[in-house]
Amino acid sequence: MSGVMASLIDGLLLGAVYGLAAMGLSLIWGVMDVINLTHGATIALGMFALYLLCGSFTVSPYLLLLPILAGGFLLGVIIYWIAVHRVVGQSQLMSLLSTFAVNMVIIGLGTTVWGTSPYNINFSVPGFSLGRYTFTGNHLLAGLAAVLIAGALHLVLYRTRMGKAIRAVADNRDAAELMGVPSARILMAAFGIGIALAGASGGLVATLFPFTILSGGAYELKSFVVTVLAGLGNPFGALLAGILLGLLEGAVTPFIAVSWIPAIEFGLFVLALVLFPRGLFSTTRSA
Amino acid sequence: MIFKRPFFWVILAVSALFAVLPLKGNNVDLREGLILGAVSIILATNLNLMIGYTGYVNFGNIVSYGLGGYIGVYLVASRGWPLVAAAVAAGVAASLFALLLGLAILHLRGAYFALATIGILEAMKAFVSNFGPWGKAAGIYLPFDVYQSLGGPMQALWTTYFLVIVVMGLSLLLSYVIKISKFGLGLFAIRENEDAAIVLGVRTSLYKAMIYGISSFFPAVAGAFIFFKSGTIEPMQAFDLTLSIEAIVMMMLGGQGTVTGAALGAFLYEELRGYLLTSPALSNFHLVIAGGLLLLIVLFAPAGLMGWVYRSVPRLRRYLE
To answer: Of A194, A246, B32, B290, which has the fewest Cβ atoms less than 10 A away?
Structure first.
């Protein structure tokens, strides 16, 4: 029994990290109707950013998340102006393709620089024990950091002028523009925040598992699952749904082979899309 | 009659050219290059039916290719079926699968549909990676003696090459026939405005499910031939999301919604990729260059090559559909 318990707690902590990653995707989707296919690549860049920063500075990796958040924001702003600005508001195919093009460029450059053999950040935080099972501090702190960053996003969105503008643009871009909101700059900021969150979640994943430049792909797919479960464009629902997904993984891991988990997750994903296209936490009835 | 239309003869001539060119001097290198081009043309042309004609972004188009490959290889390896019968069975099975799936997921529109197709691709990959009869993650290896029935391995390579070219020709014809049919008009109506199409009496749900099924047939047949030719199939390679998206790039490069564009884009992209992969200085860079190219097309030339051709030589519209 304690085995299941341990697996559930592990899933809960990991789920918070999934949720953080999905929040970035969900925010961008909600504000500008763009499915950001650079998501996985920027998660992977977050992993490598932490790896490089850990190599140069001897402070706690969790503090290094701050420069990663800042760098992610900057990268997001650049990607926005290069690839997204011109296709916002056009057909979905255009933004899917332009963000995927950036994804290919990042993956191509990353493969050239770092190759595809796994990297690893070597540090561990002492954890606690529960019966025969031990939780590493890394998992605990990663879960905690994810929740803290999510809280910070909440403050930004609901307690600052910029957050108010972001919500206004998400609601109705034309109306916001009429009220004097510079909507292009707000979209840029929202894209930057989305990428910053993706990068930070990548950094957190890097404290838990070995990674390559291609590792982001798996988390991108998980983010899709989470975002759809939460309802597209609902960042805080995404955190909850991420935790739910983590719990689900934790609940089934002791009973079936790990390799089946993706099949279950994506089956669930398609089912959720078909049955609850507005997400599990939507208050309005689905169409 | 279709025989009176010039484009029919263009398709026939191109296919014949593909079949004849490598025969001269038994040119195996050329044949291996052209077969990759032909597979790209098959994938992009059939994908064009979904995206270019109907306006539904399908990221999972590679599912039919991989599924067809698996069914074909399985039937040949474990059930002793002849190659062509196995390939046709694979095509029929993949089409039926897509048709049923389409009835379930095609009421999703826009981004929701696109996401669902990614989900289906990943679910399929994960399922096949765990499916015992298909060798789980290791896949299936064909025993060497299956090639004997085609007159030995050397001859088998040529036979599969011609079969793939036939599939390519049929794919192009199918694309063309649909484009000039009433069914095709219904699809275009769905692409332009689905609600208006419903009002005008287009049976959109049926049409969408049908085109989803139809566009799965030839990729599945081609998959069966290609994986028979390589002698092995495994999930990562059969259900590769990157290849799926590269097919979209090919279609965009040439011009979505046009038969010539999708085929031309596929061929040019494949040639470019082949060149980049073999050139020592650029091989790591092929993703960067392909990505940059895609970005430029999407941002500055969304109508692709054919958009440019049609603008510069409007008369060509009559001959190149």
So the answer is: B32
Query: Residues A217, A194: contact at Cβ < 8 Å?
Result: no
Which segments of A207-234 does DSSP mark as H helices, in order? 216-230
Based on C-alpha coordinates, what's the Rg of chain A? 19
Complex ipTM value = 0.82
Tens of pLDDT, residue by residue over A261-285, are 888 888 888 888 888 777 777 655 4
Give the closest-approach CA distance of B15 to chain A in angstroms: 30
Using an 8 Å CB-CB cutoff, list chain B residues near A276. Answer: none
Three-state secondary-structure class, residue A133: strand
A contact test, residue of B63, B191, B282, B299 with most A CBs within 10 A: B299
Name the DSSP class of B26: G
Q: Are A77 and A192 in contact (CB under 8 A)?
A: yes
A271 touches chain B (CB under 8 A): no
Strand pairing of B232-233 and B140-141? Answer: antiparallel
Q: Phi, psi at residue A35, to the nearest 5°?
A: -85, 115
Span of A64-73, A156-165, B130-139, B208-217 with lowest mean pLDDT: B130-139
pLDDT in tens, A221-244: 889 888 888 877 778 888 999 999
- Any idea where the domains of chain A sit in the sequence? 2-275
Q: Which of B111, B245, B299 sits opposite A35 (nearest CB)?
A: B111
Which among B104, B289, B291 has the least Cβ separation from residue A274?
B104
Phi/psi-derived region of residue B131, left when phi > 0, alpha when psi is between -120 and 50, beta in every other case: beta
Domain boundaries, given as residue ranges, for chain B: 2-241
**Among 1.10.287, 1.10.20, 1.10.3470, 3.30.70, what is the CATH number of A2-275?**
1.10.3470
Provide the 3-class DSSP secondary structure of residue B233.
Answer: strand
A1: pLDDT strictly greater than 70: no
Chosen for mutation from A81, A97, A228, A245 (greatest number of chain B CBs closer than 10 Å) is A97
Query: What's the pLDDT tens digit per position in B34-71?
Result: 999 999 999 999 999 999 999 888 888 899 999 999 99
Cβ <8 Å between A105 and B291: yes
With CA atoms as reference, report the closest residue to A13 among A132, A145, A155, A126: A145
Quick: pLDDT tens for A147-202: 999 999 999 999 999 999 999 999 899 999 999 999 999 999 999 999 999 999 99
Of B125, B127, B288, the CB nearest to A108: B288
pLDDT of residue A283: 55
Query: A269 to chain B, minimum CA–CA distance in Å?
Result: 6
Question: Taking a contact as any Cβ pair under 8 Å apart, which residues of chain B between 86 and 125 contact chain A?
Answer: 104-105, 107-108, 110-112, 114-116, 118-120, 122-123, 125
CB contact (8 A) between residue B285 and residue A225: no
DSSP A119: B
* Separation between Cα atoms, residue B186 and residue B207, nearest integer Å: 8
Residue A218 clears pLDDT 60, i.e. is over it: yes
Verify whether the Cβ–Cβ distance B287 to A35 is below 8 Å. Answer: no
How many CA atoms lie less than 13 Å away from B68 in the CB half-sphere? 32
